[in-house]
Structures are given as structure tokens and as C-alpha cells.
Design goal:
By secondary structure, the chain is an alpha+beta fold. The protein has seven helices and 18 strands. Among the domains are: 119 residues; 93 residues, Sandwich (Immunoglobulin-like), CATH 2.60.40.
Length: 432
């Protein structure tokens, strides 16, 4: 198969925050790290907040980066909580990858031992058929995982572990496919159908994503604990997080947008669709590529520090999968909320529920940045820490689905409280 031309979700690792339809119990600190839900500010029992305060809200400029989203009315369960390193799943990941690669090595040995090219090609065809069956099994596992999370029988951590496992299996299966393709090409460049290989590759890439790869690194302890947002409904899922290098990562999978029947999408349409749906990222693009099988087209858009990859259905002509990496420095924010309270000047710049928001804290008198601790709480529950402001007084975090209160703890006893009602993701969905 010819290589693709180059072009193009929340687990967050700072503090656990439960969001949405179901309230879930906090994880214990058995991993040897201080759990964010143990944090309780000393003033938490005070019945009132400081009285000298002013909060204002200004509308956005319409420049928020567009996103695919599970419709609000379809959301059955959402969650935003901290994930830790866990040697159990991590060991399982490594064992699974090793096993799959050993299978590939065994296949290679059998191909090398084959009596002739015809026998090799028969074996390659058989292995590709087996691989197609394995892909279907992974897709079924994914849908079952989403359904079990939606109906409350699967905990957030279990969902993350399951999706991380699927991500790794898909990656090793692509390695196997590439190996089989290389053997076939040595015999005859036209021995295998490019369309068949492309379908397998696309099906596997749909099961991988930046958020799932990030989850693997967190569970292995290769990145610090983080929060990941999860939203499911109608057998669809959205995941999002901010990784350790300051990049917002997002995955949305909406298989329900796919159609049945004859594909009508032409090769030149994916570019037009992507430009309309993601105008901000398209304007930033340095390179892009489009390729497809007719039934599915994959668009890859590269821009400074990030990538957008989408899958467009050839029948419905709709984008049904989005994988996105956007540097926080390149995030366009919308609605701004400002609060001056207790000597602190706090600005909160939002995108949408499930998207990144920025908190900036300065001294109300001097304008100097304040190294404040920022926490988030919902439904009168205990605040959960999301970070400490950097040298510019800035903290980034992923927005919960429902209204929440941000608490800013400054020097000594200074504290400010900002109430936020995040815009729905639909406010930043595709434009016409």
C-alpha cells in the first residue's frame, strides 16, 4: 500500500474531578501520590464569601477552534477525574504487545519457510483475513466498553484501561499489516489490493488516538497523573485532556453519523468539508493530505505544534471521527469572566465544556502575577486542585460539562471565587 500524503478528546493528570450525570467515589491514594480529593481549603466551612467583589462576563469573539461533539441531549454519562500510574494495567499492556509481536514473528518465520511464492501469498491472504476479524473484535470491544460506561457498570478507570488496550492492539496490528504488505510487495507489487490494505489501516487508525496514547503513558508512569474527560451517549464517545507538554488533545467518535448505501463523496470534497468545519486550524495549516477508499476518507492537517486527523464517511459525507492536538499557546478562547475579589484580579477565558479554559491571576493593586492555587468544584462538592499558576499567573485546565465554581487561593488568606457556566460544545461545532 502506498504511504499516505501528509496533511489532518477528558483525562487530566492533575486532580480528580467528577462531572455530569453520575457522581463517582474518589480513588484512594494507594498509588503513593497525594490525591487531589483530599485537598480541602481551611476556609471551606465558612458560610459566606468575602463581600467586596465584582464579577463580569463578556461575550467571545467567535474565534474558538471548531470541534466535533457528542450532542448534549445524547450525553448519558460524563466524568472528569484524575488518573494515576498503575503497574497492573501497565504490565498487561506490555504483555499484550509482546504477545502480539511474537505472533507476527511466528508468521514471518512461516513465510520465510514457505516452499514458494504462491504458498507465501496464500499465507499472507489468510493472515490478512484473520487480521480483518481481529479488527472487528476490537471494534466490538470498543462499543461494549462505551455502553457499559454509559449504563454505569464500568468505572472511568476501567474504561480508560480498556481503550488504552485497544489503542495498543491497533498499533501492533498495523505493524503486522505493514509486515505482510512488505512480504507481498517483494513477490509482486500488485499482489494485494490497495483498497483492502487501506480499509484495514483506516479501521485500525480509528481505534487509536492521542488521548488513548496519553492514557497509556500515564498508566505506565511515563507521564504524571492527569485528568481525562469522558463523555458517552448513544454509543458515541468524546475524550479530552491536557498533556504534560502543554497540548490540548481530543478524540470524538460518532459512528452514528455514518450512512448506509452507495458512497457519493468525491476525492476533492474532503478538503472542502475540512476547510468549512475547521476554519481556524485550516488557516494555520502548513501541510495537509486526503486519501480514501470511497467509503471513508481520512484527512490529515498539520499546523505548528499540532495535528488534526478526521475521518469522513463517503455515504453521509459527514465527519464522524476527530483526533486533535492543539498547543495551548494556539488556543482561541471565547467568553471571558472577570472577578476582582480579596485583592485578586481573576480572569477566566473559556472555550466550551470539555475544552480547555485559562485562569489568569494578578494582584488587583499592582497587576503583578500571583502564584495562586486553583481548584474547581461542582454541586457544592469539595474543591479539587487543578494546578498552581505559573510565572505569568496562568493555569490551564479542562472544563467540566456542567456549571462549576473556581476557587483561587492567593497569598496568606486571599481567596476569590468565580462561578462558570461553560458553553456547550455545540457552540464550537462545524460551521456551514
Amino acid at each position: 500500500m502506498k504511504s499516505l500524503r501528509v496533511v489532518v478528546v477528558v483525562l487530566v493528570i492533575t486532580a480528580m474531578l467528577t462531572v455530569g450525570v453520575v457522581t463517582l467515589s474518589a480513588e484512594t491514594a494507594s498509588h503513593g501520590q497525594a490525591d487531589a480529593d483530599e485537598f480541602e481549603p481551611s476556609y471551606a466551612s465558612q458560610p459566606t464569601q468575602p463581600t467586596q467583589s465584582v464579577q463580569t462576563v463578556e461575550g467571545g469573539d467567535g474565534g474558538v477552534i471548531n470541534t466535533l461533539a457528542v450532542p448534549t441531549d445524547d450525553i448519558e454519562r460524563s466524568d472528569l477525574r484524575r488518573q494515576h500510574a498503575d503497574l497492573g494495567p501497565a504490565a498487561g499492556f506490555d504483555a499484550g504487545v509482546t504477545t502480539d509481536r511474537l505472533v507476527t514473528h511466528a508468521i514471518v518465520a512461516e513465510l520465510d519457510a514457505a516452499a514458494n511464492d504462491d504458498e507465501r501469498l496464500d499465507r499472507i491472504d489468510s493472515e490478512l483475513s484473520e487480521l480483518e476479524t481481529e479488527v472487528i473484535d476490537l471494534e466490538d470491544d470498543q462499543q461494549e466498553t462505551i455502553r457499559e460506561f454509559s449504563d454505569g457498570t464500568l468505572e472511568p478507570r476501567e474504561l480508560v484501561e480498556s481503550l488504552a488496550t485497544i489503542h495498543l492492539k491497533a498499533a501492533t496490528y498495523r505493524e503486522r499489516m505493514n509486515t505482510l504488505e512488505a512480504y507481498a510487495d517483494e513477490i509482486d507489487d500488485d499482489a494485494l489490493s490497495d483498497g483492502r490494505l487501506q480499509r484495514i489501516e483506516y479501521d485500525l487508525r480509528m481505534l487509536e488516538s492521542p488521548v488513548r496514547g496519553h492514557a497509556v503513558e500515564v498508566l505506565r508512569g511515563e507521564q504524571p497523573a492527569n485528568r481525562i474527560m469522558i463523555e458517552t451517549g448513544n454509543d458515541e464517545i468524546a475524550l479530552a485532556a491536557i498533556d504534560d507538554d502543554g497540548t490540548y488533545i481530543r478524540e470524538v467518535n460518532r459512528q452514528g453519523l455514518r450512512g448506509s448505501g452507495t458512497a457519493t463523496l468525491t476525492p476533492d470534497q474532503p478538503e472542502e468539508i475540512t476547510e468549512q468545519q475547521y476554519p481556524v486550524l485550516w488557516e494555520r495549516s502548513t501541510s495537509w493530505s486526503s486519501d480514501g477508499t470511497g467509503s471513508v476518507f481520512m484527512m490529515s492537517v498539520n499546523y505548528p505544534g499540532g495535528e488534526l486527523r478526521t475521518f469522513i464517511d463517503g455515504v453521509s459525507e459527514q465527519t464522524f471521527i476527530e483526533h486533535k492536538r492543539v498547543p495551548l499557546a494556539g488556543i482561541n478562547t471565547g467568553e471571558t469572566t472577570t472577578k476582582v475579589q480579596d485583592g485578586l484580579n481573576v480572569t477566566v477565558d473559556q472555550t466550551y465544556a470539555g475544552g480547555p479554559f485559562r485562569v489568569t491571576v494578578t494582584d488587583a493593586d499592582t497587576g503583578e502575577p500571583v502564584a495562586a492555587t486553583v481548584t474547581v468544584a461542582q454541586d457544592n462538592q469539595e474543591s479539587q486542585s487543578v494546578g498552581t499558576a505559573d510565572e505569568d499567573g496562568v493555569v490551564w485546565a479542562v472544563s467540566p460539562r456542567e456549571p462549576f465554581t473556581i476557587t483561587i487561593l492567593g497569598e496568606e488568606t486571599a481567596a476569590a471565587f468565580v462561578d462558570i457556566d461553560p458553553p456547550s460544545p455545540e457552540s464550537a461545532t462545524a460551521t456551514e
